[in-house]
Design goal:
This protein is an alpha/beta fold and about 725 residues long. It contains 28 helices and 10 strands.
Length: about 725
């Protein structure tokens, strides 16, 4: 890629002398992908070249105009505000995800820490561990039981190891903070190429941290015999044994078992599937050397529930996804690879697209301020400056505001609607979490409940009665209501305790939950007083029936209370005015990024690169090619003037004309077909430099899949592979 981006003059040959093949400049793909259709007519012919129909991607299209990059160019200040809002929002999302993962893993980490020191005490209690025994050159004569290694088998329940790498690192840090020596060994260290020496080298570099020519367990024993290192367990964590070489892992375990008498070593082995994988990797002799205990990490579905509960059910994060996007993210998570990493990546793309496409997304910081501070200053943080009239008109022109609002389109009306949206969003999140607490009993997933709760209601079901659910909200929510009727009093008591936590910010609902709790306690006390062993007879059976009847009444009242909250508070967010400022609904844009055609995307990037890059030397609004543009952009836009095949000689003359022309002449005169003679080069650009840059740009277009290089039949022509849209 040419290094001339953003400069008025290309680099001189003197500056280019120090550039080598290793000094590659980054190639940024800045794009706004859109839907398009592929012409399948060419697929019916035998060796016909592939043609891609891009007419629907024309900038004149109505769908494309809404996301055109020229809007951001005409509004640079708000573009900076949107970028700042995106950075703040995504930073908070990342912190929320990290807190959710730490909260889920903390209980397991504490359990593992307790087991580690319990195992360490058993090792020390044997009386064989002392400084003299550690430094003894000869192995101690003991039975096989003393040579067993205390081993923790940590089941990750995840086929993809990408989610668990950070978990094992966090586990190591947790153990270090509690007084352990920890070494994290990657599965890549246990390969046949490096042998056992690679494992020992990685182990000693983390613990001994010295430059030693020999890598053996005697070095570790000498290090452990020092006063500051003695008296602490040595924990070795292998993140994924299923990716290790079985023979190397068996040899490493054999070596460690010989030294476990002198050094209190404890193994942590990560297993993705089941404990049977350990039998497949190791021989029976190696398995006898391990004294295994089993632990389990949270499953991917449990992690997903925690993340969705921390992100989508919290209105103070300034960002949410619509129903279609939520369904797509759920399917992408379950069908792609089932990893949290891929889900978070797709969520970040959705967040970035929302702030780049929605002009009013910078107002999302409204969720972080109180209801008394409701004005927005676009140049400073001082409240008191109202929204400009242009943006206010744009806000009331949103699709959700075209009906149901008063004719008065004032700033106070806008602020009042935002306050109402914040309150409705809070109530909606409360009902969602109450439903999920019921769904936990039936092992429902929070993302499934979220997708059903966010589904738009049918027009004829918005005024449905309490006893009937809208058709759009039927399966999981109806099952949750029925489950409340069926659960036992003990489970209902725990459920009401969680409901009290989620409804703490809504006093009227909290009062009803407290009333249900007191009613349940009263029924239990009454049942305890009536349920005497001496009254178990056919006549006394009425007391037992009364007990069941009392519990059923409490369950029925709890179910009616849940249905009332659903009817009154679980209104779809996408039906609330001004929700477009906070909710991303462009599922087509997200699909185009995650599963789109990269060749079409690169085509649009190169055609529209001036509007994305906004070079200060390029004329604003002009279509003329200038020498300060990328060489790849210049060549590709010149190729648009040709047909299926591009003559290399004419192409090079046009490229050379642009590079050697003065900036003023290039900006004022339109592109013309070059004459037969090539103009003399400028003093700062020689012919060799132009030829080198031309060849490099052509190769980049070939690598991007936009060109096919010359063949023996036509050695002086290249073939265009993307047709249908001119610059």
């Amino acid at each position: 890629m040419t290094p001339t981006l953003g400069t008025s003059n290309p680099p001189s040959p003197r500056d280019a002398e120090g550039i080598t093949d290793g000094d590659l400049q980054p190639f940024f793909v800045l794009h706004k992908p859109e839907l398009c259709k592929v012409d399948a007519g060419g697929s019916k012919r035998g060796k016909a070249r592939r043609k891609i129909d891009l007419h629907q991607l024309s900038p004149n299209s109505r769908e494309t105009a809404g996301a055109s990059p020229s809007d951001a160019a005409n509004d640079p200040d708000y573009g900076e505000l949107r970028m700042a809002s995106f950075n703040a929002t995504w930073s908070e999302i990342e912190c929320t995800i990290q807190r959710c993962m730490e909260k889920m893993n903390l209980e397991l980490f504490e359990e593992v820490r307790g087991w580690t020191f319990e195992s360490f005490d058993k090792i020390i209690s044997s009386g064989l561990h002392s400084v003299s025994n550690t430094l003894s050159p000869c192995p101690l004569i003991t039975d096989g039981t003393c040579r067993q290694i205390f081993t923790a088998l940590i089941l990750t329940k995840n086929m993809e190891h990408v989610d668990d790498t950070s978990t094992f690192l966090d586990l190591g840090e947790h153990l270090v903070s509690n007084g352990c020596h920890v070494a994290n060994l990657s599965s890549s260290s246990f390969n046949a190429k490096h042998g056992v020496g690679g494992c020992l080298k990685s182990l000693l570099r983390q613990l001994v941290m010295g430059s030693s020519e020999t890598f053996g367990m005697d070095v570790l024993a000498s290090w452990y015999s020092k006063k500051e290192n003695n008296g602490k367990p040595v924990v070795l964590i292998i993140d994924n044994i299923e990716q290790c070489c079985g023979t190397i892992l068996a040899a490493f375990i054999s070596i460690v078992s010989e030294w476990v008498i002198k050094i209190p070593i404890i193994l942590f082995l990560g297993i993705a599937t089941t404990t049977d994988a350990l039998r497949c990797q190791l021989s029976s002799d190696s398995l006898k050397r391990l004294n295994c205990f089993r632990f389990s990490l949270p499953s991917p579905s449990e992690r997903m529930n925690a993340i969705v509960g921390g992100l989508f059910a919290k209105p103070n994060l300034s960002f949410a996804v619509g129903h279609d996007v939520a369904v797509f993210l759920r399917n992408y998570f379950s069908r792609h690879d089932g990893t949290i990493t891929s889900f978070v990546r797709a969520l970040k793309i959705a967040c970035a697209k929302h702030y780049s496409v929605e002009p009013l997304s910078f107002l999302s910081r409204f969720m972080h301020i109180g209801e008394t501070e409701v004005t927005f200053d676009l140049e400073s943080t001082t409240p008191g400056v109202s929204l400009p009239d242009s943006k206010l008109k744009l806000a009331f022109d949103l699709p959700s505001c075209r009906r149901g609002l008063s004719k008065e389109k004032s700033y106070s009306e806008f602020v009042q609607r935002l306050i109402e949206l914040k309150k409705l969003w809070r109530d909606w999140s409360c009902v969602l979490m109450c439903l999920f607490e019921v769904g936990k009993i039936s092992k429902m997933q929070l993302l499934d409940i979220f997708c059903e709760a966010s589904a738009p209601m049918a027009p004829d079901s918005r005024n449905s009665s309490v006893g009937t659910m809208p058709p759009a909200k039927g399966k999981l929510i109806s099952q949750a209501i029925q489950k409340v009727r069926e659960i036992s009093p003990a489970v209902l008591s725990c459920l009401l305790d969680t409901w009290a936590i989620h409804t703490a910010e809504i006093p009227e609902n909290l009062d009803k939950v407290r009333e249900l709790q007191s009613l349940l306690r009263a029924v239990d006390d009454d049942d305890c007083s009536k349920n005497q062993p001496t009254k178990i007879s056919r006549r006394a059976g009425g007391g037992f029936y009364a007990e069941i009847k009392g519990n059923v009444q409490v369950n029925e009242k709890a179910a009616l209370f849940l249905k009332q909250m659903i009817r009154e508070m679980l209104k779809p967010i996408e039906s609330i005015p001004f929700h477009e400022i906070f909710v991303f609904k462009r599922v087509d844009v997200l699909k185009a990024v995650l599963t789109g055609d990269s060749r079409k995307t690169i085509h649009l990037d190169l055609v529209r690169s001036p509007s994305f890059l906004r070079c200060h030397s390029c004329p604003s609004g002009g279509k003329a090619l200038t020498r300060c543009m990328h060489d790849t952009t210049i060549l590709y836009q010149l190729a648009q003037e040709h047909g299926d095949f591009v003559n290399l000689h004419n192409w090079y003359r046009s490229f050379s004309t642009i590079l050697t022309a003065s900036p003023a002449a290039a900006a004022s005169t339109p592109r013309r077909k070059p004459k037969a003679a090539v103009p003399p080069p400028s003093p700062d650009v020689d012919t060799a430099s132009i030829q080198a840059r031309f060849c490099r740009a052509v190769i980049e277009l070939q690598v991007a899949g936009l060109l096919r290089m010359p063949t023996k039949r036509r050695p002086d022509h290249v073939q265009r592979l993307v047709l249908g849209l001119s610059s």
